Amino acid sequence: MESAQNSISWTGLVWSHLRKDLQIEWRSREAINSMLFFALLVVVLFSMAFDPTADTSREIAGGVLCVATLFASVSSLNQAWAREIRHQVLDALRMTPSDGAALFLAKVLANFLYVSIVQFVLGPIFFIFYNLHPLGNAWLLLLVIPFGTWALVANGTFFAALSIRSRNRELLLPLILFPIFLPALLAMVLSVKTILTGDNSDPNLLWIKLLGGYDIIFTTVSLILFDTILEAE
Amino acid sequence: MKKLLFAVAALVVLALMGWGFYQAIYVAPTEATMGDVQRIFYYHVPNAMLSYLFFVINFVASLFFLVWRRGHPGRAQAADAWALAGAEVGVVYCSVVLITGPLWGRPVWGIWWTWDARLTTTLVLWLIYVSYLLTRRFASGAQMQTLAAVLSVFGAIDMPINYLANRLWRTQHPAPVFGGGPDSGIKDPHMLAAFGWNVLAWAMWGLLVLGIRVYVERRQQAIDTVAALEALAGD
Q: For B128, which of A87, A138, A202, B155 could close a Cys bridge (C-beta 3.0–4.6 Å)?
């Protein structure tokens, strides 16, 4: 039994963390429900604030979708770690021999799944509210949106773990996350806009490549530095 | 002795700044197409170059802090003081860049600001380091120092993007004057001299402020340590 536990693989660790998070979410549905309602509110607020016609809505829709996701996920990312602080679960996790990167990756995967579900439900509503029909390559959205979501969730999970240790935990996360996420937001908004308007302004898909590069660099750095955050005393 | 040293250094820096101003405003010839507005270049570019220098100081000091924080707590505290000072002076220099840029852009481009890659990444760089300074206010103690050092690594990732922005993309921001290709560089010796003197003057000024800031922070750390020990003894 002892040796069986020692020989547990890294992917096995990630899986057991992930299974725990998914199970909690399946029973409470806290994160998904609150994110969904919050994002819906942002979409409604924006459409009332701007009252867009079909042409202008194509121009701004990408930005509204990204910003709605951004605000919604910030509200739930804090909760992802706050849950671990209650009953000293985080301290218990730190005492286990597993490394922090596995815990981090599992949290990112879980949050990525929640945000993706929210986008999947919200997408059709969004297209109806803004009278959209994409003029460019719509299938590219299946590439751009997961890339952008990954950038948001990977950084968001990392900086939520960082800011949870500070005094004003809820306030600090957006203050750190937004500036660092800005390049990815820009790439995501510009590629979604190109796809919706079909203006062919980015024939080499430079912005999508940039987004992919951003994902690789920031995820790697986060994985390397997560142990430092977790052990910060 | 320390006060005398500081006074001498401050006088030298003041003299250099005055000489740099004289060179930039009176000696350097007026640029052919832009006119006198171009003289802002002698402040904008040195500040941009030096803001990289101070952010690099912040990054390197943060790395040393992360390496030393377990084994050498004393050295780690010194590294943290350098990291804080580097970020603060860097933000000031980056602010000068962001202020002088639009002052030049308005008469030359006709607009104060445009969202091209160079301007956007510079603004992002400034925002990241402001959030670094905010983080240091929101948490306290050794924990805050570790979190800030980690954040500094993320700030450092944005620096190469900012440096390469007007080399990779076709930006409205002018192409790099130095290291931008075979045709780059300043041709007029008086212009080059004015530029060089201002780089030197602003570098000396920044390093002086950096030194003072490190000194003050080290004093603060010493006071905090004594206060913490007294609080422990009082229990």
A: B155
Q: What are phi and psi of A159, to 5 degrees?
A: -75, -20
CA distance B142 to chain A (A): 6
Specify the length of chain A in residues. 233
ipTM of the complex: 0.81
Total number of domains in chain B: 1
Contact A166, B138 (CB under 8 A): yes
pLDDT tens per residue, range A93-111: 888 777 888 889 999 999 9
Query: Which residues are CB-neighbours of B70 under 8 A, at least 6 positions away?
Result: none
Who has greater pLDDT, B94 or B24? B94
Q: Which residue in A169, A231, A232 sits closest to B147, CA to CA?
A: A232
Chain B residue closest in CA terms to A168: B138
Count of beta carbons in the 10 Å neighbourhood of residue A223: 18
Q: Residue B79 belongs to what domain range? A: 11-234
CA distance A153 to chain B (A): 16
pLDDT of res. B81? 94
* B88 falls within a domain: yes
In the predicted structure, residue B148 carries a pLDDT above the cut 70: yes
| CB contact at 8 A, A145 and A108 | no
- Of A167, A218, A228, nearest to B138 by CB-CB distance is A167
Q: Looking at the predicted structure, is the pLDDT value of residue B184 above 70?
A: no
Residues of B within 8 A of A165 (CB-CB) are 139, 143, 147
Residue B4 maps to a domain: no
- Please report, as a single letter, which amino acid is at residue A78: N
pLDDT value at position B89?
Answer: 96
Residue A1: per-residue pLDDT: 38
Measured CA to CA, the distance from residue A64 to residue B161 in angstroms comes to 26
